[in-house]
């Protein structure tokens, strides 16, 4: 018997005939029906803002223009993007001439130094937003690798209002993740922070110092 | 106060460390402030008591289902992790777990390792083990980074450097970080640490992390954090090793939202942490980042011993939120370092004897007033006071009625008390001494403070007065 067998054997022996077998959460299942449709967007934006996310309300037509304006304000000179994402085309055509567009088109090992030191900001899509907690759902992919939303100091995200969920449970049910998970699923709820020193909240710990959300509505 | 990290070192006795902590006004003030802050945050997060109770019932129920089906869930977790490309290892002891991690790192030729926050790694003394074998393991969580510089161990399971004042942190940085000037500006200090650690993240060969929840149904690891260091440790290096206790598994992804809400709300009063990092597999062939190799180490280290007793089993419901210690009147006074165990506070008191043995953890059971504040706030409703009482009974058994810390003097007093209260005449005599002669009464009220005086008892006892009244009527 190896360690695995011994551990499992010990557990089985202890639990024999010695369990309740009935569980409150199973006899009283919670529904995943969306609870707050009304005012959901406002709630979502308020929570994000209270956690220091900069929220820009835009339309499909003007988001790049607004992106350029914010990048100018923040002095962003290089922007990491995913050419194969839904944003790729628009960015290539309309991004400010002052900003160098850098594609994430090769494995991270081949350019780690440049990635860490020469990229001012990155821009990604997201799968949706969760109103209850003010969170963005990111599912990194071949086009948008995991570290895009992690290493650069400023992270821009574009979210369409049609992709809003009330709760995390709702998003799980909708996407069927119980059956099949993406390689890495992320919920991002603001710029990085810590209160480890004298319980004083400080932003910009190790992840991005700034999170800017472009919330796209039809109006 | 510097206590070196080691799972094997004998810690000072609880009494000594308690005394030292109580006489440290800076420590006491730091802790009081910190605990008040965390208590307020939690209270604000769970403003609706009805909703909170419902959440706690569900949280308890999910954890009960886990613990009562653990063998099956662990097997399911292993199967699904393997399907996803995650290697799974089983370790019966902390020592074995260290060996496993070491051998993975050595096989990979990893020289520099970055580590996210993991209480399990503290439990097994991983950093010490790795450094003995020439592997540099750098803590990247801000709090853990600070105490690693100070060569101390964590004093709280969520905020490890909670006992450190800003000045102490500033001193540490000035001393250990080249080019760092003294400043008490928290934002500046954080920026310094960020810059310092960024290079380490970039160059690390391997990342080590804990696991908050391991989802059996999908073979998934869930990590909760605010800083981003956990993601950096588990995304950039080519190798990721995750270590967890066997009780951290949960059945399905749909069980996660309830437990997550309870965890973040109870520990720091947030609806959710900044990052929720849900890892299901290493880098796939077409992907451009992520570790190529992911390992999961499942640690027993005495947890399976808790299973035979249905009451002790509930200790394993713990989701490591820290709320119990935030609300504990004992912990608030003495801080985490006074406890001889890796896990301090109420959860430490009921968990430690499984991890380090009954003898080593003996003193812990008496370090409680049984006020029950801990179990009122426990998100998964662990019956902490009942467990403590049972442990005290067990501790008392080999000492023939004399419980822990029961000296001869106390023993004599209780025997004398028993005699006096069973014996009518002896009782009357004692009362005479106390009331008429006012002997054997303390002059000062002791714990009530120096400003108070002891009240003067009446010259007649209540019994006498009632007898007089009874005779008249």
What does this structure look like?
The complex is a heterodimer of chains A (219) and B (473). Chain A has 219 residues and is of the alpha/beta class. Chain A has helices at 3-15, 24-27, 40-50, 63-74, 88-94, 112-118, 168-175, and strands at 53-58, 78-81, 100-103, 121-125, 128-130, 135-138, 154-160, 164-165, 184-188, 193-194, 202-203, 210-216. The longest helix of chain A is centred in the first third of the chain and has 13 residues, at 3-15. The N and C termini of chain A lie far apart (66 Å). The model of chain A has no long low-confidence stretch (mean pLDDT 93). Chain B is α/β, with parallel strands linked by helices. Helix content of chain B is 49%, strand content 10%. In chain B, helix 3 crosses helix 12, helix 9 (166-176) packs across helix 10 and helix 19 packs across helix 20. Chain B contains 21 helices and ten strands. The model of chain B is unreliable at 1-11 (pLDDT under 50). In chain B, strand 5 and strand 6 form a beta hairpin. Classes of the chains: A alpha/beta (219), B alpha/beta (473). At the A-B interface, helix 1, helix 2, helix 6, helix 7 and strand 9 of A face helix 2, helix 3, helix 4, helix 8 and helix 10 of B. Strand 9 of chain A pairs antiparallel with strand 9 (275-279) of chain B.
Question: In summary, what is this structure?
Answer:
The complex is a heterodimer of chains A (219) and B (473). By secondary structure, chain A is an alpha/beta fold.
């Amino acid at each position: 018997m190896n360690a695995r067998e011994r551990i499992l054997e010990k557990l089985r022996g202890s639990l024999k005939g010695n369990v309740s077998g009935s569980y409150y959460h199973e006899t009283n299942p919670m529904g995943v029906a969306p609870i707050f449709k009304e005012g959901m967007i406002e709630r979502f934006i308020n929570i994000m803002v209270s956690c220091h996310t900069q929220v820009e309300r835009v339309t499909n037509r003007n988001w790049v223009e607004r992106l350029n304006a914010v990048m100018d304000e923040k002095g962003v000179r290089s922007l990491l993007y995913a050419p194969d994402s839904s944003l790729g085309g628009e960015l290539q055509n309309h991004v400010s001439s002052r900003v160098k567009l850098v594609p994430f088109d090769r494995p991270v090992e081949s350019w780690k130094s440049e990635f860490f030191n020469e990229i001012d900001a990155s821009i990604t899509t997201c799968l949706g937003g969760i109103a209850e907690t003010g969170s963005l759902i990111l599912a990194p992919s071949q086009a948008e690798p995991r570290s895009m939303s992690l290493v650069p100091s400023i992270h821009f995200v574009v979210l369409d209002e049609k992709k809003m969920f009330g709760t995390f449970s709702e998003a799980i049910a909708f996407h069927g993740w119980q059956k099949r998970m993406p390689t890495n699923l992320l919920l991002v709820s603001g710029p990085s922070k810590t209160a480890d020193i004298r319980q004083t909240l400080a932003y910009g710990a190790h992840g991005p110092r700034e999170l800017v959300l472009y919330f796209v509505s039809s109006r | 106060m510097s206590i070196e990290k080691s799972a094997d070192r004998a810690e000072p006795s609880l009494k000594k460390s308690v005394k030292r902590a109580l006489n440290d006004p800076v420590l006491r003030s730091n802790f009081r402030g910190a605990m008040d802050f965390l208590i307020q945050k939690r209270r604000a997060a769970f403003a609706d008591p009805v909703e909170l109770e419902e959440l706690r019932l569900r949280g308890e129920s999910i954890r009960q289902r886990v613990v009562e089906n653990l063998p099956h869930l662990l097997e399911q977790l292993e199967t699904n992790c393997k399907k996803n490309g995650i290697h799974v290892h089983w370790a019966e002891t902390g020592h074995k777990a260290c060996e496993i991690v070491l051998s993975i790192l050595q096989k990979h030729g990893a020289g520099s390792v970055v580590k996210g926050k993991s209480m399990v790694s503290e439990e097994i003394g991983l950093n010490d083990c790795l450094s003995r074998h020439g592997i540099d393991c750098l803590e990247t969580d801000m709090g853990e980074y600070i105490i690693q510089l100070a060569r101390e161990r964590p004093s709280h399971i969520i905020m490890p450097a909670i006992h450190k004042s800003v000045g102490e942190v500033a001193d540490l940085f000035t001393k250990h970080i080249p080019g760092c000037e003294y400043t008490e500006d928290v934002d500046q200090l954080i920026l310094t640490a960020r810059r310092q650690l960024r290079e380490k993240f970039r160059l690390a060969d391997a990342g080590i992390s804990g696991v908050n929840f391991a989802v059996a149904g999908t073979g998934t690891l869930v990590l909760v954090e605010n800083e981003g260091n956990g993601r950096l440790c588990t995304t950039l290096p080519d190798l990721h090793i995750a270590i967890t206790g066997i009780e951290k598994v949960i059945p399905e992804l749909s069980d996660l939202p309830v437990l997550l809400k309870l965890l973040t709300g109870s520990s720091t009063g947030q609806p959710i942490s900044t990052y929720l990092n849900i890892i299901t597999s290493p880098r796939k062939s077409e992907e451009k980042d992520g570790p190529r190799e992911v390992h999961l180490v499942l640690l027993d280290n005495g947890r399976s011993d808790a299973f035979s007793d249905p009451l002790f089993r509930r200790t394993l419901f713990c989701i490591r939120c820290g709320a119990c210690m935030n609300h504990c009147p004992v912990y608030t006074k003495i801080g985490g370092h006074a406890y001889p165990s890796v896990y301090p506070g109420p959860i430490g008191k009921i968990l430690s004897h499984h991890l380090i043995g009954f003898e080593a953890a003996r003193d812990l059971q008496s370090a409680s007033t049984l006020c029950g504040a801990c179990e009122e706030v426990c998100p998964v409703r662990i019956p902490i006071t009942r467990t403590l009482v049972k442990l005290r009974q067990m501790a008392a058994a080999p000492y023939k009625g004399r419980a822990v810390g029961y000296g001869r003097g106390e023993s004599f007093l209780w025997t004398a008390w028993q005699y006096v209260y069973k014996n009518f005449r002896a009782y009357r005599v004692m009362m005479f001494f106390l009331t008429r002669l006012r002997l054997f009464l303390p002059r000062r009220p002791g714990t009530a403070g120096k400003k108070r005086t002891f009240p003067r008892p009446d010259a007649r006892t209540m019994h006498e007065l009632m007898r007089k009244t009874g005779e008249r009527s």
